[in-house]
């Protein structure tokens, strides 16, 4: 795995409300997870299996495991990982990890989860056609014409929307208690970059909040980094103190924003795992991608001798999108029930997160939008049909997010495209 996301805790299962009970420390961990504690890893078997998946991690990830075919057992195998020590996405020797795993480690399936490594993965795939290279968040799996190169993602916008419902209900509780007025229901959002992945996530979160709290608005500050605790805490503090935001969420990977919320006593909805340890009195819920279903899919496909799809997108129905449990010490009454209601609607296909009837752009309802699906930074494909923006459609478009619209009710206080 070539990675960039720093996990706070293991993802926990939330489908059909299985984990949406109790305090965070009581939640049942999903049956198949991406990381485990050191003690658990010590019990795993060693050695490469015939169809092991190699995981290449960046230097900020604490552990790397090969995922074996038997029950997706996580294997502590130092030789099955490589790191981008600088987290710079540059070819400094560590970005050749995929080639090293294919050439020297004998791995047959290699998975990378960082957008910036796609070009290196494609190069490696062409050099080693007998090895399958699977890349998360990428954009060219369907157009690269490389049979052993594949993209994958998950419809995390569904999880964001559900987390947004919890946020909106908390705002309603604060309004009912007289702590804020309806007009003061302002959400603050700490984003990494002004990219489609971040915009898609923050918009789905906002739409979830507004589905239960119509007066909610949202202000966004971007840090220019996927992981910078100081900048994220600074941005969250500014949103709270300067911008008068009364609830904070994030698309950034550190404990910076949750820490700022706990210090200020402001409710927080986090991402990539529970931040309860940093905010026992403010944490509400978080959403995350669970990669285990995709690992199972690619392993089983390779074992059967079948072709891996050029692009793949997991959903909440496949357990690829998960939630932490609700912190009932902070969440509003009825949060669990409302989230479960929405989960059922998402699984049934009766709820579309980006239903165009539920948002406007410059006061107008969108009937068509040309999204950048092929990754050339120019919109070329209409992705609105049947009354909704069809995000992360891996069959017709691509799995990586392409929703890059700033809708009414959301205000960017700055922008940051990196570089």
SSE topology:
Blueprint (H helix, E strand, L loop, with lengths): L37 H5 L10 E3 L9 E3 L6 E3 L20 H7 L5 E4 L5 H10 L4 E5 L12 E6 L1 H21 L9 E6 L4 H17 L4 E6 L6 H13 L5 E5 L4 H9 L3 E4 L11 E7 L2 H13 L6 E4 L6 E3 L11 H14 L21 E2 L9 E2 L1 E2 L2 E2 L20 E3 L7
Parallel strand pairs: 1-4, 4-5, 5-6, 6-12, 7-8, 7-9, 8-18, 9-10, 10-11
Antiparallel strand pairs: 2-3, 11-13, 14-15, 16-17
Helix pairs in contact: 4-5, 4-9, 6-7
What can you tell me about this protein's structure?
This protein is α/β, with parallel strands linked by helices. The protein is about 25% helix and about 15% strand. The chain has helices at about 40, 95-105, 120-125, 155-175, 195-210, 230-240, 255-265, 290-305, 335-350; strands spanning about 55, 65, 75, 110, 130-135, 150-155, 185-190, 215-220, 245-250, 270, 285-290, 310-315, 320-325, 370, 380, 385, 390, 410. Helix 6 packs parallel to helix 7. About 50% of the residues are buried. The model is unreliable at about 1-50 and about 55-95 (pLDDT under 50).
């Amino acid at each position: 795995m070539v990675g960039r996301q720093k996990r706070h805790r293991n993802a926990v299962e939330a489908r059909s409300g299985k984990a949406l009970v109790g305090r965070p420390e009581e939640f049942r961990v999903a049956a198949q997870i991406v990381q485990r504690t050191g003690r658990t890893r010590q019990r795993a078997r060693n050695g490469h299996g015939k169809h092991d998946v190699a995981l290449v991690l960046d230097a900020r990830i604490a552990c790397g495991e090969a995922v074996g075919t038997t029950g997706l057992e996580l294997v502590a195998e130092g030789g099955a990982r490589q790191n981008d020590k600088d987290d710079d996405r540059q070819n400094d020797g560590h970005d050749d990890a995929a080639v090293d795993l294919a050439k020297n480690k004998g791995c047959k399936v290699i998975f990378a989860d960082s957008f910036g490594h796609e070009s290196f993965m494609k190069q490696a795939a062409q050099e080693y056609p007998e090895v399958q290279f699977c890349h998360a968040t990428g954009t060219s799996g369907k157009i690269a014409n490389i049979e052993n190169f594949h993209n994958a993602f998950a419809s995390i916008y569904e999880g964001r929307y559900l987390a947004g419902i919890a946020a909106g209900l908390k705002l309603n509780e604060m309004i009912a208690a007289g702590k804020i007025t309806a007009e003061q229901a302002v959400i603050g959002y700490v984003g990494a970059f002004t990219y489609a992945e971040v915009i898609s996530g923050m918009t789905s979160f906002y739409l979830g909040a507004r589905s239960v709290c119509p007066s909610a608005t949202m202000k966004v500050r971007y840090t220019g980094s996927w992981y910078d605790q100081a900048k994220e805490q600074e941005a969250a503090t500014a949103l709270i103190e300067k911008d008068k935001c009364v609830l904070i969420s994030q698309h950034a990977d550190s404990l910076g924003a949750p820490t700022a919320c706990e210090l200020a006593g402001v409710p927080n909805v986090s991402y990539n795992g529970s931040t309860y340890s940093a905010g026992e009195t403010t944490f509400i819920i978080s959403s995350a991608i669970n990669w285990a279903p995709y690992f199972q899919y690619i392993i089983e496909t390779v074992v059967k001798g079948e072709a891996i799809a050029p692009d793949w997108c997991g959903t909440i129905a496949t357990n690829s999108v998960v939630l932490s449990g609700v912190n009932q010490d902070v969440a509003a009454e009825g949060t669990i029930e409302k989230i479960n209601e929405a989960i059922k609607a998402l699984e049934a296909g009766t709820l579309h997160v980006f239903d165009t009837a539920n948002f406007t752009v410059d006061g107008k309802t969108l009937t068509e939008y040309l999204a950048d699906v092929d990754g050339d930074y120019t919109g070329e494909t209409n992705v609105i049909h049947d009354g909704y923006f069809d995000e992360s459609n891996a069959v017709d478009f691509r799995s990586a997010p392409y929703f890059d619209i700033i809708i009414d009710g959301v205000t960017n206080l700055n922008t940051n495209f990196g570089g």
